[in-house]
Give the backbone structure.
Amino acid sequence: MDYKLSQHAHDVLEEREIAVSWLERVLRSPQRVEVDPDDAELEHRLGRITEHGNRVLRAVVNKTVRPVLVVTVYFDRKMRNKL
């Protein structure tokens, strides 16, 4: 999948020790996709990362640009048992 990282997304991947392969998996094959409630250009892609305690990774992307721009990425505690 072709994508670009915002500076914020790049920084949080390193700070939170999120593997790029996990991000790419969620971008390529999300288990759930949500529309951002405040910005129609943004899309939330979620996927369970089994090798990281079944935590849910949320990637927020700007879907209107090419390549897709990853705005931020984080483990979503609120989605822990909902996906």
Q: What stands out?
A: Residues 3-79 form a domain with the YaeB-like fold fold (CATH 3.30.2310). The mean pLDDT is 95. The chain has one domain: 3-79. The helical segments are 7-15, 20-28.
